[in-house]
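pinging the channel bc i need a second pair of eyes. not urgent but kinda urgent?? the chain im working w is below, pasted from the shared doc
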Amino acid sequence: MMTNDLPFDNTLMMMNSLKGYLTTEEELAFMQLLFSSSASIKGANYGLAKKDLAKMLGINNGDDEAFHSFINRLNAALSRYFRVVYDARRDRVIVMMHVTAKHAKSTLSSEALAIMLYLFYHQEVLGHEFTLLHQILVDFGHESLNANRKLKNNIDQLKKIGAVTDYESVSEEAFMLTAIGVHMFSESFLRRTTEFAQETQLSKEEVMKFFNRYNLHIEEENE
């Protein structure tokens, strides 16, 4: 799931045009990716392992060029509606779908979304590898037992959609964004969020700099 404002009226037409980008084997692999990327169907084991996808594509598991070529061509064809992401930490390839902010509200509570934005800023902008549960409690101004339970329930929502995972290399309870979490927010969503927080309109460049995506934004435009 990626927050966005795009309509879905031409989805089937777009899917039909994939034949011009993919071989028959690649089409079948993509359909399996779509099916496997549903957390409701596959539980916590959603997505496909890199070696399984490579086998479907008929390429060597170590052929990173062919592997990333498949992902890049999919993203070029599907960027209006989907995004294919390889999560190296989990070794899973997944398909993320663009959804409107309105529909995102039915997936995540406002509290879970706030925690997600906090983790995004703490890790992607400030550069921390993980975030301690205690840090979240303190920064959100809640340290009571009930607040602890509610906060963890909301973090569980983020875990269920694959945006956050436990970080087990420290003695305290901590969490880390996955590749899904890193790519979950669209530029338009980040812009609205920042403008609302600062009560003023900002340029796209100012928002990207604030969220530490400016260099990435430039690289994507030059590709």
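so Residues 215 and 221 are 10 Å apart (CA to CA). and The chain has 13 helices and seven strands. — does that match what u expected or am i reading it wrong
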